[in-house]
Design brief:
Length: 578
Amino acid sequence: MDGSRGFLLSRDDTMHSKEYLAQDLAPTILGVTGFFCFLSLIVVALRLYARAFMVRRLGWEDLLIFITALFVLGCWICFVGEATTGVLGHHMETVTIPQYELFLLWTFPHQLFISLGNGTFKCSVGFFLIRVGTKKWGRWVLYCLMSFIAISSLVYGSTLFWSCIPLRANWHFDEQKDAKMISTKVWMGLAMWNAVANMLTDSILAVWPLPIVLKMRVSTFKKAALVVSLSLGWLAVVCCAVKTWAMWNYFTVSDKYYKDLYFFLCFLEMSVGTIAASVPLLQPLVKRFRFCSSARDDSGKVVLMPLPAVMPVTPPQAKMRRPIITWTGMGFTSFQDGEEYRYDDPERSGSSAPVNTTSGLIIGHASRNRSQVSEYLGIPYAQPPLGELRFAAPQQYSSDDIFNASSFSPDCPANLPPPSTYPGLTASGQRIYLNFADQVGNPQSEDCLTLNIWTKATTHKSPKAVLLWIHGGRFTLPGTHSLFYQGQYLADQEDVIVVTINQRVNIFGYPGAPGETQNLGLLDHRMAVEWVRDNIAGFGGDPHRITLFGQSAGGAATDFYAYAWKEDPIVAGLVSHS
């Protein structure tokens, strides 16, 4: 072979004008691919910042999307290298053999990055859908789909290494005479199978969230916003479909690198898929800038300050304790039958490991003002005391579902007394009194038998002591959803786990009906203690070092507990305040 130009074309294909031969699409190809490359990198960087520093929770989906971003960058670097050879964006009539050999050397890692990158971004989407899914069968389907994607990507990528032996014969024509190479037909078959598999998996991942959207308890506007966000995934499907046509031309058309449609569309599928997988997870950044204003601190530095907000009080709905996925602004959320739980709220999320319990898989979050403390709120420890269970002893509750413990449950029903008037009480004192005594604004529901857990990770391996709190209130006032009963401060300062429990009060807890079960609230305490004994080890607690303590009516209840369960107290200690 010599270095003559147009060596791959027939004589009829080489009869073109000088203007035609001087055409150069390389700057356009590099400009468009560079735009999508750096847009992908920026979106992924924002996603990782939000996940690592605001939500403080990184998962497999984040690691895989980071790896995909590296593949996207690698592909663009390959485009740049291919352009420097004088082949990319030029007609083959102008290409010499040495140029083409160097170009083929660049296409080898390019194809490998595309094959692996398309697999990693799809697996990232799969892990995200598993995280927000609610059905076991759905999670298993996604696991199987991701396994298929991973195996297909690895197998197709590996063909690049064994398709030609020795490998260097791929880009050294003088060694191809004695090389062992698979035929063009086999390559076309493998490429067609890969294209069909890509279209199928892209379509499944794009369709999968739509039933979740249709079931959301949100406005039509929010549903439309989410559909638009998820529609980015369909752009990857379109790119994949057009890429299949371009792939056929890649094997049948000689002047294929002038527009380089196949590699361009492969890159577009991967970069658009990376962006589509990251946009729904930017909600913490959107929320921070949407609900903050700027101000200057004492040193003159500009800082973000949260805007004041009014929290509407909505009547509680009857709980079914089954998570329902929804959408809030730019983030996936779950509605626990009226109570909202966010997956990616920077103020209600964090590095809290899910815990398997008898009440299901409990998903926690970092405490709002003690980020090192994980809190798990509103965990049901007994069946809802509704219907025939009203005025009955508490019954054990068990579930295999995922429970997003991101919000306090409603207070147990109570007849709140009118606020008392104290002469000379300051405005701040009145506000404190209202929050403490009346818990103004909290929703109420008979489905209220829940508990809350605060725990902090430590370096030592021994389990922690557990403090289990019974609130006061004359056995008539609810509940644990109070600024005064939040356990993150104690859990942060001391090496303990803090648990607070809701209990039935007033007529629902102490009906006094002749011939019926009495002191239901005290029985609720026992059921909560049994739940803590059975499950606290998963939170890092020691079931043999539980201390029951309470204040006012809670202190009296602690005394009653000591007398009622003296044969099998379960707890190791009791502390009665006031």
